[in-house]
Amino acid sequence: MKKIVFSPLDPEYETIDEQVSTWDINEWRKMPRKVRGPIFEAGGHPWRILFFPMGNNVEYASVYLEHAYEPAPPEGWYACVQFALVLWNPNEPSHYVHHQAHHRFTKEDGDWGFTRFAEFRKLFSVQEGKKRPLVEEESCKLTAYVRVVKDPTGILWHNFLNYDSKKETGYVGLRNQGATCYLNSLIQSLYVTNSFRRAVFQIPTENEDLSNSALALQRLFYQLQNAKDAIDTNELTKSFGWDAKQIFAQQDVQELSRKLMESLEEKMKGTEAENALANMFVGKMRTYINCINVEYESSRVEDYWDIQLNVRGMGNLEKSFEDYIGVETLEGDNKYFAEGHGLQDAKKGVIFETFPSVMHLHLKRFEYDYMRDEMMKVNDYYEFPLKFDASPYLADDADKSEPWTYVLHGVLVHSGDFNAGHYYAYLKPTKNGHFFRFDDERVTRATELEVTRDNYGGDHGANGVQNRNEYARINTSVKRSMSAYMLVYIRESRIDEILPELTPEDTPAHLERRFEEERALREAKRKERDEQHLYLEVKTAHEKIFRQHQGIDLCDWEGKDPKAQQAESHKVLRAQTVGQFSQMLAEQLGTTPDKIRLWVMVNRQNKTVRPDTWLTDMEQTIEDAANKHASKNQAFRLWVETHDDLLKSPSVSDPKAANNSAFLLFIKYFDAKNQCLKGFGTMYVKKQDKVSDLLKPLCELMGWPEKMGIKLFEEIKPQMIEPMKPKQTFQQAEIQDGDIICFQEDLSPAQLVASMQSLSVTNAPERIAEIQNGNTGAIADAKEFYEYLANKVTVVFTPKVAESGLPIFELDLHKKILYDQLAQRVADHLHASPTHIRFTTVSPNGVVRGVVKRSSTQRLDQIIIPTMTYNMNNNTNNNTFTLLYEVLELSLSELETKKAVRVIWLPEGISKEEQFEFLVAKQGQLVDLFGDLKEKAKIKDEDAQRVRFFLASSGKYQKDLDDNFHVAGLQDFNTLYAELVPQEELEMKEDERIVTAFHFYREPSKNHVNGVPFKFVVRNGEPFSETRARLQKRTGIKGKQFEKIKFSIVFKAAFSKPRYLEDVVDDVLSDLLGEEDVLGLDHVDKSARGGLWGRAETAIFIR
């Protein structure tokens, strides 16, 4: 029976103990609801059957296996058990019901089994094909087959509830931001490569901010070393310049690895880590062609950072390497043209000269399927060893004095298909340690079989992997979804060098210091949040703040205007008394509590904030006072009156004696000479005092003659400033506590200008030059100045061309001034002519909108209205705006007769672009701008005749233009280029021809709209090795950037696939190229607006 009901253990696992226990069941219907069987031992642990004869709340008998520890198992106990439970008739053993399962038994999860083990109606009746019921005369037997299994990793059949990666493995995971599992896998692989981590730590970053990707990576590595829980990668991806588009798009691990290496190499230059990455990851390979019948060889040696190996049809790593260095014979129609020897039979191939200490092998698991016209995953079965000898793949003359044996360090796995998948990694951090699975947040120990066999790909049940149940009727073959995508091997003789034990000294000290500071800040914020309910925000203003405030009301209580004087904010314990708070304020202001009076500020119906009443109960708590007087959802606002600062009053000598017959007034002074309005002070007056009674004390305070002409205004609300009648009493003028009176010297505009000139107030026009209706000049009247303040906007003027050397500055302007007045103000600041100033609007997010056309009736608020609308809708400070400006060589009226022509000069092939803009008469020709181009581009006299103009559209070559081409024919969608005609084009032979070239990515339809097209000379019979060299010279692209370009022939026929040219020297471009075909350069578009129709491709990048 055992062989039938109890499946054999997977050969991957090891059995610790196996036991069988049978329990005789009698008087079934008389048994209690829950009963336990006899205890038996297996694997050193006590076990028993838990039986519900009448079901566990179901119409089935319920049977479970449970541990029999009493009262509970030891702390941390667990056992991995495979078991089968069989209910059978001893009189007819072939009549049975069985179920089997496996489970990780723990203290918290001590039983496992089957609630619906056997249906009642089938237990007590004779079933078809049987002679007896299973339960006969209320009796039967219940057998438990128990196999205790060794847990090789500590997580066998784990449910991962409350799993602690750090505690179990010593490592922590990385959180997935959306689709960043591929990034997590690569980062973990590099992190456990200790020499790489050390090199990253050696990059100087102490003075860098988090936009530096090297610092972000250092911080991430530091956290991986010290954190107890999984880490976010937000800082790293943000430093890369990624946004949601990159976060939620899976990318190629190989491309990410290369980009990261390039970025770090650049940051390591000039540091102690320089060349550290190349010493770890770079090897050398030689591409060669050897003639068979003559002594001739063409070869080149190149560096490589990783090796791409074919998977399809290979089967294992050894065959992939053999395929990689396989030799191709060039014969027949495919003979090689050897210089000096003509067409020859030859052998072509690649051989490795050295392998790096850390070898990254990228398996080609994704290929383009031409039948389906899409990328597909290659899930073929593919073996890779824990150790292999790489010496058979080295050149005969390679240095083999040190063994080239490599041991497996990591396997990056892809699970799923091309369109939807997941990445994780198996890594071996130490020389003699275990493999661990790094799967986003979770890190677990892994067996070598999990690392290798489970990631060979192919089918379950195929390629020697047998179905786990030999008694299953069908030997199924199930496609594996997971397969190795990238392999990391370390040279065995260098493993101590690659995986050194890092010490605290290897970690930059500033990292720990920064994290400690951030931790302290977080703790302070947490404490503040936790104690927030104990405190109340109280805002205060006092005499000093009022005197410095220029604007409406006493100060800016809400902090909306950064240029206004702000109220002071206090965090006050709710239980603190008013008296205690008054004591604190007195100490801050350098006075005593008995000389302070706290006035409650209220919102008046006219939208002003003014004092209403003072607090008299010093024992009252701040919370009670706020609940009684403060407005909902606003801070508790108080005016702090200090008796020593009160102005001399015409009738109230003792502020303490002020009663209901007296008012507290706020006095402001409009200084017309300096064009400013500020708080002057506070004073008490009686209701029956006349307004004119203020004149004498004000003259005394200002040091003016007693009969000086003074104007008085009441500041009622914004844009409602009324002159006061001197003969009225304050009661008749309806003055109350907290009202504001403004005074000024009574000057005519002419007197004001003369006075300003005599005082040499040169900065007044810079600050105030607009009055109501947009008339330029100084403001002589306080009411008009208030009106100016209500309509004042701050405009930040930024040069449109950053390299122009012009300054960034800001002006406070009346928003109703006209265009010409705006230009005059800017011109005065720049000491330039206003007729030569041109403005361009810009959106709040920095996008340039358009040039502002000059109009004599257009006002400033109409020019900046899009920005104003945006600001008002977003509740931001709507008083500050930005305009771009230029100082032109021509006046705007002259400019209207010109056409702006943008020329992109190509001084070095297509690798460098210099952009110039010229103003040409609308009826002019290209020859009219050539002189300026020659001067700006520094074209030599002897090269002037070689300059060629050509048009491009969407990155494709259109046509050449002669000097007489009319600029009116240039369209906005065309790009005008200028270059020196290459010497080889000037010296073309009769059998040579010209082909145009353009750039694309993956598909010719996805051309680089900002790519620079070019002409190229095709030489008859020239092997592609020489063509490639000329292409590098023609384009001016060098190094790795050129190596990444795949050259192809793009045929005229629509929807045809491009014909890619071999990297080596077997293809002849002139033989393959049709009359109307073009040359295509396939590579990633790195321009800011790359991609089809201006859309950027999703190619990966690191800022």
TrEMBL record:
It catalyses: Thiol-dependent hydrolysis of ester, thioester, amide, peptide and isopeptide bonds formed by the C-terminal Gly of ubiquitin (a 76-residue protein attached to proteins as an intracellular targeting signal). This is ubiquitinyl hydrolase 1. GO terms for biological process: protein deubiquitination; proteolysis; regulation of protein stability. Its EC number is 3.4.19.12. Transmembrane segments: none annotated. GO terms for molecular function: cysteine-type deubiquitinase activity. Residues 172-492 form the USP domain. Gene3D superfamilies: Apoptosis, Tumor Necrosis Factor Receptor Associated Protein 2, Chain A (2.60.210.10), Cysteine proteinases (3.90.70.10), Phosphatidylinositol 3-kinase Catalytic Subunit, Chain A, domain 1 (3.10.20.90). InterPro entries: MATH/TRAF_dom (IPR002083), Papain-like_cys_pep_sf (IPR038765), Peptidase_C19 (IPR050164), Peptidase_C19_UCH (IPR001394), TRAF-like (IPR008974), USP (IPR028889), USP7_ICP0-binding_dom (IPR024729), USP_C (IPR029346). The keyword Transmembrane helix does not apply. Signal peptide: none annotated. Keywords: Hydrolase, Protease, Thiol protease, Ubl conjugation pathway. Residues 18-146 form the MATH domain. Belongs to the peptidase C19 family.
